[in-house]
C-alpha cells in the first residue's frame, strides 16, 4: 500500500482484509487505510481505501473520516464515504444523504437513493420515484431490491404512484431476470396490500361491534376500499404480464409465482 504506483496500492488495499481480521495487524491496517482515504493523491485509491475500511471496520470511530470524505472533490470517493456511513451510523447516513442530494450529481444520487430506500420515510418518495424512473441497466435492478422494501413500508398513495414505473420495468425490454424481479416486486406489494386490507376489514368489524365513532369507521372503510382496489389492480396487472409474456424462462418462472 506504500508503492509509488496507484494500481499496486489499490491491489494492496483489496488484499488487506485478511490482515484486518488479525489482532496483531488490525490497528495497523485501519490506520494505513485511513491515511490513504484522506491523503492519497489518486481518487481511485482514496475510494478503494474507504471501501476497504467499511468492509473490515464497521464502527462509529470512522464517522469523522466519512464526514471528511463527503467533501472530497471526487464523486466516487463521496459515494464510497456515504456507503461506509450506512454500515456504522444509519441515522447519520440519512442526514448525510439529505446534504448530498443538494449537489444534484447522478453518481451521488444513486447512492442517496439507496440510502433513502433503505432508511427513508414518506418525505423521500418523490425523489425515489424520480431516481428509479431515470435509472437504467443494472443500477435500476439493484435499486429495485431496496425500493421494493421501502414501498412496502409506505402508505397506499405512495405505492400507487410507483406501480406504473415497476410495471413498465416488468413489461420492458430488459433482461429476463430484471423483468422477473419487477414482477416479483409487484407480487410482493400485492401480498402486503392484501394483508393490510384483511387487517382493516377486521378492525372495521371490531369498531362496528363496539359502537365506535362513525367517523372513524368511515375513515377506515375508505382506507380499506383504497387498499383493496390497488391490490386488485396490481393482481390484474400481474395477470396481464403473465398472459403476454413470450420468453420461455419467464413463462416457466411465472407459473411458480404465487
How would you describe this protein?
By secondary structure, this protein is mainly α. It has 2 domains: 1-88; 155-258. The chain contains 14 helices and no strands. The protein has helices at residues 6-14, 17-20, 23-39, 43-56, 63-69, 75-88, 90-100, 106-119, 125-134, 137-153, 156-170, 176-209, 214-244, 248-255. 31% of the residues are buried.
Quick recap:
The chain has 258 residues and is mostly helical. Helices cover 79% and strands 0% of the residues. The chain is elongated and about 70 Å long.
User: What class would the helix/strand composition place it in?
Assistant: mainly alpha
Work out the number of β strands: 0
Helix-strand pattern, N to C?
Answer: HHHHHHHHHHHHHH
Residue windows where pLDDT falls under 50 for at least 5 positions: none
What number is the mean pLDDT? 90
Strand content: under 5%
Number of helices: 14
Biggest sheet layout? none
Amino acid at each position: 500500500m506504500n508503492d509509488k504506483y496507484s494500481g499496486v496500492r489499490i491491489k494492496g488495499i483489496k488484499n488487506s482484509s485478511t490482515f484486518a481480521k488479525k489482532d496483531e495487524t488490525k490497528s495497523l491496517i485501519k490506520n494505513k487505510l485511513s491515511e490513504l482515504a484522506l491523503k492519497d493523491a489518486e481518487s481511485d485509491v482514496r475510494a478503494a481505501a474507504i471501501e476497504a475500511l467499511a468492509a473490515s471496520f464497521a464502527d462509529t470511530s470512522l464517522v469523522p473520516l466519512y464526514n471528511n470524505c463527503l467533501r472530497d472533490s471526487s464523486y466516487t470517493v463521496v459515494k464510497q464515504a456515504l456507503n461506509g456511513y450506512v454500515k456504522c451510523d444509519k441515522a447519520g447516513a440519512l442526514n448525510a444523504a439529505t446534504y448530498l442530494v443538494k449537489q444534484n450529481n447522478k453518481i451521488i444520487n444513486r447512492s442517496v437513493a439507496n440510502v433513502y430506500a433503505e432508511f427513508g420515510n414518506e418525505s423521500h418518495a418523490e425523489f425515489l420515484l424520480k431516481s428509479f424512473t431515470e435509472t437504467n441497466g443494472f443500477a435500476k435492478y439493484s435499486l429495485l431490491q431496496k425500493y421494493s422494501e421501502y414501498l412496502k413500508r409506505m402508505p397506499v398513495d405512495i405505492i400507487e404512484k410507483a406501480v406504473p414505473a415497476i410495471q413498465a420495468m416488468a413489461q420492458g425490454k430488459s433482461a429476463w431476470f430484471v423483468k422477473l424481479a419487477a414482477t416479483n416486486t409487484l407480487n410482493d406489494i400485492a401480498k402486503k396490500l392484501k394483508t393490510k386490507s384483511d387487517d382493516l376489514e377486521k378492525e372495521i368489524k371490531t369498531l362496528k361491534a363496539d359502537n365506535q365513532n362513525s367517523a372513524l369507521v368511515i375513515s377506515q372503510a375508505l382506507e380499506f376500499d383504497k387498499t383493496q382496489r390497488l391490490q386488485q389492480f396490481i393482481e390484474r396487472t400481474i395477470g396481464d404480464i403473465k398472459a403476454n409474456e413470450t420468453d420461455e424462462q419467464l413463462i416457466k418462472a411465472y407459473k411458480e409465482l404465487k
